[in-house]
Amino acid sequence: MSADNPDSTVNLNEQKAREQLIDLAADFYDQFARGDIPEMTLPTRTKSNIVFDEDSGVWVYGDRTSTRSANSVRGARKLLKAAYTVEFLANQLDENRSSTLRELYYLSESWDSEEAQFSTQDESNQLVEDLEIVSSVTREDFHMRPEESGAKLMGPLLLREQTRRGDREIHCQEDVGQGGYQIPNNPDTIEFLDHDIDFVMCVETGGMRDRLVENGFDTDYDCMVVHLGGQPARATRRIIKRLHDELDRPVVVFCDGDPWSYRIFGSVAYGSIKSAHLSEYLATPEARYVGIRPQDIVDYDLPTDPLSDSDVNALESELDDPRFQTDFWEEQIELQLDIEKKAEQQALAAQGLDFVTDTYLPERLGEMGVI
């Protein structure tokens, strides 16, 4: 059970968010007052500037920085857009309202300066991430929401969530349908009340998630099944971390056997370049990879597809990726390059619909000491 009161924690975070936004605007003003050319300094957001933090066990930005300066027309436009966005976010917090990243992009069309309007949603998304970095506050505390991720939970967990009609308690097996409990945009508003969870299993695909639930894997093994929905949203990664840290339960990740799925595991365990400033908030470095492994393709003679050129390039890139520089990953990636094959989770169905829950996962989890 969580020792913190989610309501008080969220309120403090929102107060900090507004203070940080005001401080950022004041910094711009002070630079103008001194006669300085306004600028904003950020970490360089490239793979070459990602370093491993020994204390937290996750990948974070290094010491290299980039400066957004108004000494060029392009730089001035970026800072103008930042100023308008800061004002919008501060007003949004004052009014206790929220908006989506997509809405911010369209809202800029109404701003009185055409130069402050965003040309693409990628541009507005990037700016919100920049403001997270310089303010050390998450976009959730700015009341910014992504589009719906659809990721869900199914398992023996009783929680309390905030709703427009007050708090309500939900059991993530008994009070939900086959679809499960949908993860909210800000999982820090959820309070864990009670549970019978032995371990947390993160599943990449909806098809495999449905197979596990239909076969009763969550009840048979007291497992919390978390649907990742492909590359997991921040809310999904955040609740995985909370389940691990607050309930002290092991986390395992079950993905397809291809390089893109290995990166999904990497984002859960170690963070990603895009959100390296939030790795300690989102990443679960203790997470372990269950499969599909290239060795499984060989051992179980799984149905496969040939590696494409982009697959090969991605695998070779992962050999240089610090998140995969372990004996296990180097051995598996080298094997996959050798056999030139990849396989999906559902390929296990070639052995029968119950094989994954009756044989594959129990044996693998037993070997790992999880069950």
From TrEMBL:
<protein>
    <recommendedName>
        <fullName>Type 2 DNA topoisomerase 6 subunit A</fullName>
        <ecNumber>5.6.2.2</ecNumber>
    </recommendedName>
</protein>
<dbReference type="InterPro" id="IPR036078">
    <property type="entry name" value="Spo11/TopoVI_A_sf"/>
</dbReference>
<dbReference type="InterPro" id="IPR002815">
    <property type="entry name" value="Spo11/TopoVI_A"/>
</dbReference>
<feature type="active site" description="O-(5'-phospho-DNA)-tyrosine intermediate">
    <location>
        <position position="106"/>
    </location>
</feature>
<feature type="binding site">
    <location>
        <position position="256"/>
    </location>
    <ligand>
        <name>Mg(2+)</name>
    </ligand>
</feature>
<keyword id="KW-0067">ATP-binding</keyword>
<dbReference type="Pfam" id="PF20768">
    <property type="entry name" value="Topo_VI_alpha"/>
</dbReference>
<keyword id="KW-0547">Nucleotide-binding</keyword>
<dbReference type="GO" id="GO:0003677">
    <property type="term" value="F:DNA binding"/>
</dbReference>
<feature type="domain" description="Type II DNA topoisomerase VI subunit A all-beta">
    <location>
        <begin position="147"/>
        <end position="196"/>
    </location>
</feature>
<dbReference type="GO" id="GO:0006260">
    <property type="term" value="P:DNA replication"/>
</dbReference>
<keyword id="KW-0799">Topoisomerase</keyword>
<dbReference type="InterPro" id="IPR049333">
    <property type="entry name" value="Topo_VI_alpha"/>
</dbReference>
<dbReference type="GO" id="GO:0000287">
    <property type="term" value="F:magnesium ion binding"/>
</dbReference>
<keyword id="KW-0238">DNA-binding</keyword>
<dbReference type="Pfam" id="PF21180">
    <property type="entry name" value="TOP6A-Spo11_Toprim"/>
</dbReference>
<dbReference type="GO" id="GO:0003918">
    <property type="term" value="F:DNA topoisomerase type II (double strand cut, ATP-hydrolyzing) activity"/>
</dbReference>
<feature type="binding site">
    <location>
        <position position="204"/>
    </location>
    <ligand>
        <name>Mg(2+)</name>
    </ligand>
</feature>
<feature type="domain" description="Spo11/DNA topoisomerase VI subunit A N-terminal">
    <location>
        <begin position="77"/>
        <end position="143"/>
    </location>
</feature>
<keyword id="KW-0460">Magnesium</keyword>
<keyword id="KW-0479">Metal-binding</keyword>
<dbReference type="GO" id="GO:0005524">
    <property type="term" value="F:ATP binding"/>
</dbReference>
<feature type="domain" description="Topoisomerase 6 subunit A/Spo11 TOPRIM">
    <location>
        <begin position="199"/>
        <end position="365"/>
    </location>
</feature>
<dbReference type="InterPro" id="IPR036388">
    <property type="entry name" value="WH-like_DNA-bd_sf"/>
</dbReference>
<dbReference type="InterPro" id="IPR013049">
    <property type="entry name" value="Spo11/TopoVI_A_N"/>
</dbReference>
<dbReference type="InterPro" id="IPR004085">
    <property type="entry name" value="TopoVI_A"/>
</dbReference>
<comment type="subunit">
    <text>Homodimer. Heterotetramer of two Top6A and two Top6B chains.</text>
</comment>
<dbReference type="InterPro" id="IPR034136">
    <property type="entry name" value="TOPRIM_Topo6A/Spo11"/>
</dbReference>
<dbReference type="GO" id="GO:0006265">
    <property type="term" value="P:DNA topological change"/>
</dbReference>
<dbReference type="Pfam" id="PF04406">
    <property type="entry name" value="TP6A_N"/>
</dbReference>
<comment type="function">
    <text>Relaxes both positive and negative superturns and exhibits a strong decatenase activity.</text>
</comment>
<keyword id="KW-0413">Isomerase</keyword>
<comment type="similarity">
    <text>Belongs to the TOP6A family.</text>
</comment>
